Amino acid sequence: MAILVIAEHDHTSIKAATRNAVTAATKIGGEIHLLVAGSACAAAADAAAGLAGVSKVLLADAPHYADQSPENLAALVVATAASHTHLLAAATTCGKNFMPRVAALLDVAQISEIIGVESADTFVRPIYAGNVVATVQSADPVKVITVRATAFEAAGDGGNAHIEKLSAGPDLAQNKLVGRELSKSERPELTAAKVIVSGGRGMGNGENFHRLLEPLADRLGAALGASRAAVDAGYVSNDYQVGQTGKIVAPQLYIAVGISGAIQHLAGMKDSKVIVAINKDAEAPIFQVADYGLVGDLFEVLPALQAELG
Amino acid sequence: MKILVAVKRVVDYNVKVRVKPDASDVDLANVKMSMNPFDEIAIEEAVRLKEAGIATEVIAVSAGIANCQETLRTAMAIGADRGILIQTDVELQPLAVAKLLKAVCEKEQPQIVLCGKQAIDDDANQTGQMLAGLMNWPQATFASKIVVAGQLATVTREIDGGLETVEVPLPAVLTADLRLNEPRYATLPNIMKAKRKPLETTHPATLGVDVAPRLKTLKVAEPPKRTAGIKVADAADLVMKLKTEAKVI
């Protein structure tokens, strides 16, 4: 019996969050298998085989896994469940989509977004937007778990797992992908970035947001984020959003610019290692969680900051 | 076409919850309760589909204690035609709720089930996907746009890298994300009208569903608080501290 981690990938490489899920699996203890389901995804399987701690890669390569439809993916995972004690996936929009379906088909509970492993059947997870953490125990024969990536280190390389081909399940043809509009960016992904520069409503408009924050992000090799207020005001699209209803991040350095610090934003970034807040309102709640607070007009502070960084 | 909408009674989103002294659970005594905000968006979407002439009836379903009636009345004030309460005092977990909804789906035969993408109390984000799995229906989660034409729903979904659009044949389960719509305020006349709309009460045993919890909560706690740090004088001071003190740049 082993732990199965379902890999998220783009058919050529493994997504960063899967590495964190592998680390969560090592904390449970036991042999770790990685499932790569995709279409023409041998390169992703090779990358998976190189992950430290993984002993076997299960590769299901078929055209109907190209779009990662939750119905086909769940059916495949359920078919491999019998030989595994735990099924894990990163709590990304992909993992959150198909994993509960897997749990229901296996008639077991899902343990969502774990942030800690106490034992093979006991896990820690945030509830109430992270304002409370619960320790929960599962009596189910198979534990279906999604993993909050920011709570676990990323597994490194150096593994040499062997790749075993799985026969593909049937194509349920229940879900047809029409198109994807992905934000094109040379910057790192928000959830994997070491540094994040985030803007709020204080930026004033979308033009200021890009003109003032992008050079800073580029100088620091940072990802760009935004508060919900900035997204709702139309400065940037929703995939920039950090917070309870957006992405949960925990970078080494989080720079909040013109963000007041609503509870729902704090829920998404309060686990960052170092938080910097730049806001003209000295009473803004963001200063209560910031390691370094700079009270000032961002339109003066940002150019000065840029000049200091050189 | 019937649309079924699942609604949950949760602690109001403005309430700062506290942990009980014995750490067994959060303290819900005398706390304001409301409809889960994502479920409100789901109800609004269903009502709009009815107003657009696509749906013929919107049925709100809630499972839990007797007070969930209030949540159903709110749903009916927004525009749901009737309500079904599956009443129980047992703590309900997502798998149990999905099984209850399955039993209701088998009876009511809706073409679309709309759920909020997650409840803001347990943050599970499971029920819609579980129901879809149990019904062997397609699912389209985290919807920011829904277009229904004939027996096909075209759904724009919020995904980590941006947006994706999928087509699912009906019947299907769709879950609402934040940007799907802005729910209307229930007007006083509609609140009064909602009181006269039919509300049926049933029980898990009547539906033949075992709702015993699968997960046991051993304890709850408040996470370690972050404390405020220091104020820096200017950009030069900030850069110096980030370099020499925090060593993060």
Helix and strand content put the structural class of chain B at alpha/beta
Order of helices and strands of chain B: EEEHEHEHEHEEEEHEHEEH
Helix share bin of chain B: 25-40%
Name of the CATH homologous superfamily of chain B: HUPs
Assigned CATH architecture of the largest domain in chain A: 3-Layer(aba) Sandwich
Biggest beta sheet attributes of chain B: 9 strands, mixed
Measured between the Cα atoms of the first and last residue of chain A, the distance is: 55 Å
Strand order, main sheet of chain B: write it out: 9-8-7-10-6-1-4-5-11
In total, the number of domains of chain A comes to 2
Tally of strands of chain A: 16
Range of strand content of chain A: 25-35%
Radius of gyration of chain B: 21 Å
Task: Name the overall outline of chain B.
Answer: globular
Oligomerization state: heterodimer
**Looking at the structure, what is the overall shape of chain A?**
elongated
Task: Describe the structure in your own words.
The complex is a heterodimer of chains A (310) and B (249). Chain A is of the alpha/beta class and 310 residues long. Chain A has two domains: 164 residues, Rossmann fold, CATH 3.40.50.620; 120 residues, TPP-binding domain (Rossmann fold), CATH 3.40.50. Chain A is built from eight helices and 16 strands. A seven-stranded parallel sheet of chain A has the order 5-9-4-1-2-3-10, sandwiched between helices. Chain A has a five-stranded parallel sheet with strand order 13-12-14-15-16. The radius of gyration of chain A is 21 Å and the shape is elongated. The termini of chain A are far apart. With 249 residues, chain B is α/β, with parallel strands linked by helices. Chain B has a single domain, classed as HUPs (Rossmann fold, 3-Layer(aba) Sandwich). In chain B, strand 7 and strand 8 form a beta hairpin. The radius of gyration of chain B is 21 Å and the shape is globular. The chains are: A alpha/beta (310), B alpha/beta (249). Chains A and B meet through helix 3, helix 4, strand 5, strand 7 and strand 8 of A and helix 3, helix 4, strand 7, strand 8 and strand 9 of B.
